[in-house]
Amino acid sequence: MKYLIKNGALVSSAGRCRADLLTQDGKIAQIGQGLSAEDAQVIDASGKYIFPGFIDTHTHFDLDAGDFHTADDFATGTKAALAGGTTAILDFTTQQKGETLKQALENWHRLAEGKACCDYGFHMSITDWNPAVAAEIKDMTRLGVTSYKLYMAYDNLRVNDQEIMEILEAEKGIVGVHCENQEMIRGVTARLKREEKDSPRLRPKSRPAEAEAEAIHRLLALAKLAGAPVNIVHVSSALGLREIRRARLDGQQAFAETCPQYLVLEDSIYEKPGFAGAAYVCAPPIRKPEDVKELWTAVSRDEFDMIGTDHCSFHMDGQKTRGLSDFTQIPGGLPGVERRAALFYHFGVNGGKATVEQMCRLLSERPAKLFGLYPKKGSLAPGSDADLVIWDPKAAWTITAKEQTQNVDYTPYEGIQVKGRAQKVFLRGRLAAENGKPCKSVTGEYLFRGSRQL
Ligand SMILES: [Zn+2]
Description:
By secondary structure, the chain is an alpha/beta fold. Helices cover 30% and strands 23% of the residues. Bound molecules: zinc ion.
């Protein structure tokens, strides 16, 4: 099937221009004025933006959380992604202790293969660093994995400072790091549990911004010694941001990601009556209004490289409720993969804090370049994959859990009225979603990724 999309405003980070776009055999075949093609289905995109398909750099689908799994697996998670305009996701394979990286990668391939509906790639989370694992890095490159993830928090996942430095020195791709100081969190949590009654509202207090900022500071010092660039994932606080700015002024190459929840929600949501605040429990937690303001300032100044979602969904009923009598037992994570673009467009573009060009840069172009997908992804140019989002800036609608594709019993954004939505979404030239609903029978492909171009 060929599509001829006429009169849309084609968006890149550098600007927008009105043009026609022809797709053929899964690729963008031609871009120009007054195009015609007899055998193509014509779509009039007057008054609409055309974005290169959005890339979510941070999802956790089908993640094992002890005796249960995340609510979304690769089937529901990637359908939800498409519904919102996201045509590629990068999920995290996690090496268990004692496992090789190849085993971990195979495990995640099994979870995604035949189920994923949008294109997908994997970051590799290293949790057990040793010489044999170091020797596997070149195999990972050959298998299309060119980015890594390390945890400074969580006792079962984290690596120590020496290991972080060794991995950064060994690494030929890009390393993303979850920055929170676990011991600070443990200390504050113990005090809170002694002093106050258990409740979800204690959760953000137990993971203060200082714990994030300290870890970012330490990571950047390690990266400086290692002489390596580094990527700081899900930056949530003004204090954390200050560390990144300081290192950049110092000449360090530091990439940074933030997430919609840190841009749209404020920590007062944890004060909701009863257990309702558990819906928003994630790590790092939702921060104060002044943090939200500072993150938007950073967005408008192009200080972030990506908006990922950290989509990690748990049902309120039966999963989040495990923490009813102990706030530390509430599974951490929020659903978000489906609503990222709409939230960014509404609060960022409509809110006057970002332009559509910046939206393209953050949600598509920059992730493609950093994670070795450009110009196959992240670009509207002949030869690129025909991953396209026809964006209707005028569509007004309300976010509700009832209407969502992601398989979870709530949304953190319930009742928020937004303007702007993905009207049609194409994955490699095939219609994959329309008006917020995924189409049947689109299948995702594994993304063999190359080296970064930033
Ligand atoms: Zn995550």
